[in-house]
């Protein structure tokens, strides 16, 4: 019996269109294209140089990198359905879940604050009974 040797599978490089073996194929940065090892290395080098150019351009422009500020948000709870969500300051207070307009700030009722109030009120009642 003759041993059947499977034919080697070849893949086509998306960039140079050459047929290459499985060992020489790589996925591109986008995760979709197949590149041969040579094109992959070229692509990586060009990517690094473009990133370096971008960084150099930012440094030479003299403007510091300032992170974008997020608009101020409030943590709130809907009184009607108890749904917790964030609300931008200045926006219309309406629950996105039930549409209710009765909204209260959620940070008013933190566990520490409630425990502080309860322990403070117990001290008051203890001093009243003595």
List keywords for this structure.
single chain, 130 residues, alpha+beta, three-stranded antiparallel beta sheet, two-stranded antiparallel ribbon, 2 helices, 7 strands, 34% helix
What's the gist of this structure?
The chain has 130 residues and is of the alpha+beta class. 34% of the residues lie in helices and 20% in strands. It contains two helices and seven strands, in the order E-E-E-E-H-E-E-E-H.
Describe this protein's structure.
- This protein has 130 residues and is of the alpha+beta class.
- The protein has two domains: 10-59, no CATH class; 73-116.
- The protein contains two helices and seven strands, in the order E-E-E-E-H-E-E-E-H.
- Strands 6-5-7 form a three-stranded antiparallel β-sheet, with no helix packed on it. A two-stranded antiparallel ribbon has the order 1-2. The chain has a two-stranded antiparallel sheet with strand order 3-4.
- It is elongated, with a radius of gyration of 32 Å.
- The relative contact order is 0.08.
Q: Write the element-wise H/E pattern from the N-terminal end onward.
A: EEEEHEEEH
Radius of gyration: 32 Å
How many individual β-strands? 7
Identify the quaternary structure here.
Answer: single chain
Supply the number of structural domains.
Answer: 2
Sequence of strands across the biggest β-sheet? 6-5-7
Q: What number is the mean pLDDT?
A: 77
Task: Report the helical percentage.
Answer: 25-40%
Low-confidence region ranges: none
| Total DSSP helices | 2
What is the SS-derived class? alpha+beta
Share in β-strands: 15-25%
Instruction: Identify the overall geometry.
Output: elongated
| Terminal Cα span | 105 Å
Largest sheet: 3 strands, antiparallel
């Amino acid at each position: 019996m003759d041993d059947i040797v499977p034919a080697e599978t070849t893949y086509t490089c998306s960039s140079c269109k050459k047929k290459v073996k499985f060992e020489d194929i790589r996925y591109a940065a986008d995760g979709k294209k197949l590149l041969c090892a040579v094109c992959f290395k070229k692509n990586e080098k060009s990517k690094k140089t473009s990133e370096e150019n971008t960084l150099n351009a930012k440094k030479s422009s003299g403007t510091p990198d300032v992170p974008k500020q997020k608009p101020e948000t409030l943590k709130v709870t809907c009184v009607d359905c108890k749904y917790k969500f964030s609300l931008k300051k200045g926006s219309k207070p309406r629950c996105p879940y039930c549409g209710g307009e009765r909204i209260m700030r959620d940070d008013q009722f933190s566990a520490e604050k409630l425990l502080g109030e309860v322990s403070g009120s117990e001290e008051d009642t203890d001093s009243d009974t003595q």
